[in-house]
Design brief:
Two copies of one chain form a homodimer. The first copy, chain A, folds into three domains: 118 residues, Uridine Diphospho-n-acetylenolpyruvylglucosamine Reductase, domain 2 (2-Layer Sandwich), CATH 3.30.43.10; 107 residues, Uridine Diphospho-n-acetylenolpyruvylglucosamine Reductase, domain 3 (2-Layer Sandwich), CATH 3.30.465; 158 residues, FAD-linked oxidase, cap domain/gating helix (Vanillyl-alcohol Oxidase, Chain A, domain 3, 3-Layer(aba) Sandwich), CATH 3.40.462. The first copy, chain A, starts with 17 loop residues before the first helix and ends with a helix. The first copy, chain A, is of the alpha+beta class. Chain A is 38% helix and 17% strand. A five-stranded antiparallel sheet of chain A has the order 5-6-10-8-9. In chain A, helix 2 runs antiparallel to helix 5. Chain A contains 17 helices and 15 strands. The interface between A and B is large, with 45 and 45 residues.
Amino acid sequence: MMRWWGWGEESHPPALPPHALDRLRHELGLAPGARGERVDLDAVRLPDSALGEGARAALDRAAGAGWVRDDRESRIRHAAGRGLPDLLRLRRGEADPAPDAVVSPGGDAELRAVLEACAEHRVAVVPFGGGTSVVGGVEPLRGGCEAVIALDLARLDKVDVDGRSLLATAGAGVRLPELEARLAHAGVTLGHFPQSFEYATVGGCVATRSAGQASTGYGRIDELVRGVRLAAPAGDLAPPALPASAAGPDLRELVVGSEGALGVISEATLTVRPAPAVRRYEGVVFASFAEGAEALRACAQRDAAPDVARLSDEDETRLTLALAGETRATRAMGLYLRARGIRGGCLAIVGWEGAGHHVRRRRARSLAVLRHAGAVPLGAAPGRAWARARFEGPYLRDDLLDHGVLVETLETAHRWSRLDDLYRNVAGALRAALRA
Amino acid sequence: MMRWWGWGEESHPPALPPHALDRLRHELGLAPGARGERVDLDAVRLPDSALGEGARAALDRAAGAGWVRDDRESRIRHAAGRGLPDLLRLRRGEADPAPDAVVSPGGDAELRAVLEACAEHRVAVVPFGGGTSVVGGVEPLRGGCEAVIALDLARLDKVDVDGRSLLATAGAGVRLPELEARLAHAGVTLGHFPQSFEYATVGGCVATRSAGQASTGYGRIDELVRGVRLAAPAGDLAPPALPASAAGPDLRELVVGSEGALGVISEATLTVRPAPAVRRYEGVVFASFAEGAEALRACAQRDAAPDVARLSDEDETRLTLALAGETRATRAMGLYLRARGIRGGCLAIVGWEGAGHHVRRRRARSLAVLRHAGAVPLGAAPGRAWARARFEGPYLRDDLLDHGVLVETLETAHRWSRLDDLYRNVAGALRAALRA
């Protein structure tokens, strides 16, 4: 079970190695004793549940005995997502607002009954999957209602695979690792690996229009969703899982990204692929961010894109290497860059997944384009290091918060011709804001 | 200018060769003198224009002098699309309903002014691009309004190319051949070739969510649209041309396929690709439709799909060969099928477009998968024959109507595991209905 105040299981080892902490102290001028606030669970301020007796009884009937919880810990655990403001709020001990109860329907009929009970008793409903939203998607806001529940979707956990069509239908509450395990039995994969992979659910990915680390190859979730079922207050919307339709606007695209605001996503049908026999991740280095971006553009526009393509700028490269410590790969990269007279340099991780011959062919093609555009290959060591730590970001964030250091992530997208402008303007605005 | 009663220019030669007509007469039991009705333009019944003086004056002001037409021919030319019911209606001489006027705004400001004038004077607006709709999309329905105009978008004809991002922004009224000619100057292509290519417009493709003959490779229009501008009665909706966004539902997908019902699509930004140096189309033959479908499934699911992939069933194959007459390719196919003891057989056209080495590599991969699945290659002759006639369907339909023969097209999509059922049920229902 995830820590109530942060990411991951209690037993997870620290993500921040001691040498990296020293380096950060030096770089940020952090006082050695600086600590981020974090209260104990007992000290969390939680308002009394506002759920009336009538509403409570109706929810008990709708969801079944035992599936309506209003104990202190359940409510605190469903009070916030995992964005930076959520973490700061929880660590301070603020569980206000919190849901007045946590309700867990076991199927579509119970879900419909819960929605009707909530409509009748003027109770707001906030769908809750993995609870990893970073945009306030699970904020238990009451609006004009008498009370608010977190609708925990964990029991919507069916998975069906149509191997012939390469389609999988999964309940909204299925977590991605569980989904991948069950897909693996059928020899397929969704290939969707957001940073939140360990806790994110199918419904959450669809509701947040998520992208993952291999989405260059497998496609973003909006490119993978074929069918979806939305339980809305006025009824169900369930566009069928067809490959395409020209019969009017695509209503699936209203549901994808709706963040729980239009109804409860209870199920999705997703494109899957044969499970890859080989996963190969490597590092390459560029003289500059602009050179790296041009190289990736060439790949993308010449049908040579790797499945994983992640380019760091000079600052992120420096930080990544500092956190990694001295390894053969970082030494090789340092030597190479010095030999070329480059200060800084930009690391990129590129990766291919699939059948062995397929990976060999596509890797050769990508590397030819990348090399032509200036990339110097660093081999598989940086790729292995990246793969080991690919889901460590949120753990690292907690460790840094413990030391009083804030970290935050932004995601955006723009056309290639505007990438330079975007990068310079956003980085400039961030630096200016942090200096102020 | 397109024939008012059918497809293409007056000067277009007949699409139905004499030997094919004989064959059809034999096959369908058609009487030698059977003729489809077709009246002269003078004999068309057209109601008087219901546009009031105030509305007319307001539209003149909004669109500019000379851009509001209510002459007989303009109204008849905008009275119907090009579906079978449209053609039968026009050939019978029925131009009722017809638009009360045809208005041609020259840009976004005029378009907005026209919409406001129409709202003020209770005039219904039907956007009109190439006029090739087959689903009643340009039917001049007045609804509860006093009058109805056809909003001819031909003057919205700008084209801008962002070669670095491989994006093109085009006015709704640009016809696809004109678009491709202008894209070719920039070394790129949209690669969108619906059967209606010669007359279809950018706005029409977006409004109808069209797919084209090479959409297996280039993607359907909904996969190519990045940005779109909709002039709606309540204001403009113009989601920017970003590669992706996770900030809520994708409103572009409401506009794509909206058939002019939500507003006027005035512009679209579309993904383009480098113009192909090589286009290679070939024929292959399968023992059965099921074998062919399985072969194409294998291609699609193993990253080996051709850009063009068109499988005919036994009946369509027989008809195609009959219309083509005796050629080296049809003789070769006949010999091969007889040698394998196959009656019938199914022809598929497969094609690849791109740089020379790219086409060679992808063709080899597709053909390996197809052969493994039972395909026998027939070489380039059937591909050339298909390419010559790829936009001839609507001409052929007119010629057949002249002889009293109706033809109609259906499009649909389903998951691979349901394809057999779909095919058998639809074909069975059609045969039963035609026999009745």
